[in-house]
Specification:
Rossmann fold, alpha/beta, binds uridine-5'-diphosphate, 215 residues, 9 helices, single chain, binds magnesium ion, five-stranded parallel beta sheet
Length: 215
């Protein structure tokens, strides 16, 4: 009579697991191209156990996926230093967070989202889709002069293999950063969410300052 119960068991367990999972915690990591976001994120992962999700890396991975419907679109946007429509980026971020949470039974739930949100479209799309699902802790802002960033990126360009680490794309990326991303950082600043770090020093020095926000 109750032989239908065993077939229900797995889903009961799954539901339990989902309810026991904490809401994902998110820190946005912003700053111009070459400000050191990726470098500092790697250090934060190592010392404070966060999961690093680079929006740019996720987009590059999708771009290189053979049957991707949006691969060519992403390639064009990246080369031009333009910002990919939020549906694509936000979708990739949410998928990566969910996969991490599921694979670790909810043990890994603290995420550094690097290089996002970069414009108003990103911000609005994220808020619509994710506001209720995550707990946004703060925004880390690596502040670095354009001249320092340029030197770093052109050096990285010699080995990175990235289609946008050249003087031409870089100019466009800086322009996008100044006109579209900086206003987003300012927007978060108005609600006291921004933790600003002077990033024109060596990685260790910058990390000392970064660490303060994680103690
Ligand atoms: N990009 C995007 N949306 C994002 C993140 C990246 O469209 O949320 C694209 C954009 O064209 C950007 C490029 O990916 O110029 C490289 O981004 P990445 O974050 O890797 O560069 P970084 O700023 O770290 O040098
Ligand atoms: Mg990066």
């Amino acid at each position: 009579m109750f032989n239908f119960i065993p077939s229900l068991l797995p889903s009961v367990q799954a539901v339990r697991r989902i309810f026991s999972m904490a809401k994902p915690q998110v820190i946005f990591v912003l700053g111009g191209p070459g400000a050191g976001k990726g470098t500092q994120c790697a250090k934060i992962v190592e010392k404070f156990g966060y999961v690093h999700l680079s929006a740019g890396d996720l987009l590059r991975k999708e771009k290189n996926t053979p049957d991707s419907k949006v691969g060519q679109l992403i390639a064009n946007y990246i080369k031009e230093g333009k910002i990919v429509p939020v549906k694509i980026t936000c979708g990739l971020l949410e998928k990566a967070m969910n996969e991490t949470m599921e694979e670790t039974n909810g043990e890994k739930y603290k995420f550094l989202i690097d290089g996002f949100p970069r414009n108003k479209d990103n911000l609005d799309g994220w808020n619509d889709a994710m506001n209720d699902k995550v707990d946004l802790k703060f925004v880390l802002f690596f502040d670095c002069p354009e001249s320092v960033c340029t030197t770093r990126i052109l050096e990285r360009g010699q080995t990175s293999g990235r289609t946008d680490d050249n003087a031409d794309s870089l100019k466009k990326r800086f322009n996008t950063y100044a006109t579209e991303t900086k206003p987003i950082i300012d927007h978060y600043g108005e609600s006291g969410k921004v933790r600003k770090i002077a990033a024109d020093h060596d990685p260790e020095t910058v990390f000392q300052e970064t660490s303060k926000y994680f103690q």
